[in-house]
Structure formats: C-alpha cells, structure tokens
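> @MW can you paste both from yesterday?
MW: sure, first one:
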Amino acid sequence: MDYFDYASTTPMDARVLDIYREVAEHYWGNPNSLHDIGGSAKEILDRCTDTLASLFGVPSAGLTFTSGGSAGNAAALIGLSHGRKHLGSHIIIGGAEHASIHNASGQLQSAGFEITFIPSRENGLIDLRRLQSSVRMDTILVSIAHCNGEIGVIQPMGDIKEILRDSAALLHSDLVQSFGKWPIEEAIRHADSFTVSSHKIHGPKGMGALYIDPSIDLLPVQRISGTPDLPGITAFTAAAERATPMPDHYQMLRNSFFASLDSKMGKGYRVYEGPVGHQLPQVIGLAIEGIEGQWLMLECNRRGIAISTGSACQSGMQGIPITLKSMGATERDGKEFIRISFGPSTTLEKIDRLTDTLAEVRLSILSGGVI
C-alpha cells in the first residue's frame, strides 16, 4: 500500500528499532532504583535527557519524558494554569489546536478558568488582531501550536510572543507536527513550554517530551512521575538525533503533486494552505469538489492508497474538522476535506498513482458511476 498519512504516524526507523531492542534486553533496570542495575539505567536516562535538551537548546532541568504529545499538552496546560492561578484565571487557546489542547481546556473550564478561543484567518494563520484584543490583565496562559496538523500551516511565534510581551501570560506551543520537519529554533526561543512526540519522527509510539522553563512554578501533582520507559526514551532520542527537516525536497514533491493533479482534473478542488514561508510542504489539506472525504478515503484505500480525512486523534468525532471550523469553513467544506502527507517513502511515481486515483474517483462520481 502507498502510504500518504505521515502526519498521523510514521513507521519506526530500523536503526531506532535496533536500539530499542538492545536497551530493552540489556538495560531493563528501574532508573529510580539505588542498586547498580538501576544506576546503569539512570546513566542512560540522564544521557538521553541531556542529548535531547542539547538538540532543543534548553536546560535539561526543564525536560520531562511523557507518554506522547497529548499527555504532554494536558500536563502543560493543567500544570501551568493551576500553578499561576494566583495571578489570574483567563486562558487563551488557538481555535485550531490539537484535540488534546481542547480536551484540557474543557477540564480547566470545569475547574473555574475562563477560556477564550482565537479563530484562524482564511489562510490558516492565527488572527493576531483578535489575539491582541483578547489579552487581559488576568491572562495567565496562551496555547498556540507551531504547526497545524491538518493543513500544515506554520504560525508566526515571534509575532505572538511580541503581543504577550507586556502581559503575565506564558506561551505554550505544541511542536509535534513541526519537530524534525521544519526549523523549530524560533518557536523554542519564544515558548515558555512546548511538547514533541516520538512517533511523528520514526520513533516508538507512546513516547514524547515536555519542556517547561525550570524557573516556572508548577503544582507538584502535575509533575510527571513513575517508572521511565527507558527503551522508548532511548529510541526516541535516537530518532530525534536522526530527524532532519527537508523542506526543499518536500516542496518539490508538493509542486509535483499539484502539477499532476491539475493536468488530470483541472481546478476541481480547493487547497487549504498558509502563505509563503508559513506552510509545511509535506502536509496537504484539500477538498475535491462534490466528493465527501470519507468516500474518497475509502476508495483510495480500496485501491491500495492510504490518505486521511484529518487528525487521527479526532477521526471518531462527527462534524467539521477543528481546523476548518476555526477558519470559518462550512459543514460541506468539512465533509469534503482530505489530508495527504508525505514522508521518506513518497516518490514521484507514487504521487502520480495517487493523482490518477483521485481523478478516477472524481470522474466516476461526475459521470454517475457507482463508488
């Protein structure tokens, strides 16, 4: 099967898998134990923490390994909000955030916090004017993802931080979709906390990391504890070291995809994308006019091609995707939406087969054929 759903998850790198097996077999001790077996495991854990912190350019003291991006987002929002409740109870959330952010914001609302959601503009960028007008004296936290997972728009983190400069609000950013795919130095420089995930960069599932500036107070209950998954942590660190953004390569594939699609079906589709310099090229959000995304996904699957209809973390939810809703799209737009995402196995030949399939299914619909 040709895989075009890399924004959802990635296969484990063979070298990373070898490292996972080696650590699981030879370093199975609990790093929290005081004997030598635990001590050997602790040395590896500390080395991984230092390595990942060095990759990010942040102090090791602020880095914690988590069970994934969603867990990290929840821990960050809940921990930071309760830790700063003495300063206020107002929180700002981007309308196109990952489902884990929206779920955590619901918990915070139940706990008495006030949440303001900031919509995106038609190009997917956060509405900076709305953000600026929403910041208040009692705003304690703002959460804006660096890169949207459904259409791949990169947010202007420097501009966002500038709006917050004179406020007491901290900035949390979900870097899950941009880490390893796009330069993240600017986002890290401006964020007080951020999350990343292993399975998006060919590492093991169930593993991620959360960074919170160590000078920020957190409630003790929100600090993540337990027995560390040392094989997962080591494999994740190895995957992070190997992750290299290749925007020029994926921009070439993106351009080839649209050139091929145009030649086979004209302009019978709509693209959801950001302006130049604000688009992750390997993520394509689009709608084929007149065809429901669910039907199209199933037809592609029947023909040996894997695409998606948006974030897998909300695929069981009904209604318009969060991102499109934030952009003001209609329910029909949401039903027609599909996401295509590229990875290392993506070739020009596979892209040509994909566009053949999309054009074939559309022609079948328009000619009254049965899907």
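MW: second:
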Amino acid sequence: MHAALFYRPGDRLSLSELSAARLDGHVIEVGEGYMPVDTVEGRDARATSIADLVTPRLAACGRTAAWIHGAGDQPPAVHHVRRVSASRFRSQRSFRVVFHERRLPPEEVMQIAGIAVATPLSAAVEMLFQSVIEHADDRWLRALLLADPGLGCRALAHVEQLPRRPGRRLGLNLLAEIISAQDVVTR
C-alpha cells in the first residue's frame, strides 16, 4: 500500500477533517489512521497504520502481529512489540504499547510495508503459551488460526518439536482442541 493512500491525524488532514470524511463515507478507520474506502484493507494497510508505534528496532508481536496477519476486524486495545536488535535498549513508555524484552529471532521476523512483524507461526506459538501459562484470553489465537487454515497444523508440529518447556502439554491440548473445532466448521 502506498503511503500517500494512508492518512494519519495531523499529517495532511486534521482529526476533525478525517472524522468528517469518515462520516461522509470517503475514508475508513484502520488502526491508528484512515484510508480511502475503495482501498483494500490488507496486511500492508494494517502494518502501515501502526508504523508510528513500532520503531525500527522493534517488531509487532502477539496480538498486534495476529491483527496485522488478518485476525479480527479491530486492532487490539494495546499493541505488543518485541525487540529485534541484538543490543538491549530503553523502551519508550506508552500506555498503548506493551514492550516485551525477549528478542525475536531474525528467522521469525518478516517485513510488511517496511514494518517488522512476527511471522504468523511465531505469533501463534507466542499467544499459545501466553494463554496456557498466563491464562490469557485465546480469542486472538483462535482468530489467527481461522485466518490462516494451515497454521494450526504447522503450530502443532512446531510445538511438538520443542524441548521441555512449561505449558507445552497444555499448549498441545489447546491446539488439538482448536484444530478439531476448525475441522468441523470447514467441512
């Protein structure tokens, strides 16, 4: 998606002008900005919308990466990022962004519209372990697995190959449950 098709409040148009254009049906709201109604909202549009929140040394992960990859209609209330640089640094404090210190390996990062984003498999595995260890909500995981039908089987194979890890058995059970529910729906 070309940057000229994405409008951030305060850049070329004020928030009130963009809100009026939205009410008139000329633009739609996507994440942190707006884009023309006739433009397809894809991964690149969603990634572009959070470009101000994800600095070059960070990558969108977890729920944010799931949303970029097509899970859900609305972005998460709080975005999640992880560092991709080898060196540690002090993160900017923000109520809109949760910074995870653990580094995201280069093989688990992909570039979408110039923004570093965790791969769908990496995001799914991260959310899987969050849901079983931290008892977090698994709606984003389920939505991501629905958006990419083959991802559940790939995640299951990936988790089976992991060495001993807390929550591994519970994660495998949850994935098997989600995959079996998907099979019934997609027949």
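> thanks! The mean pLDDT is 89.
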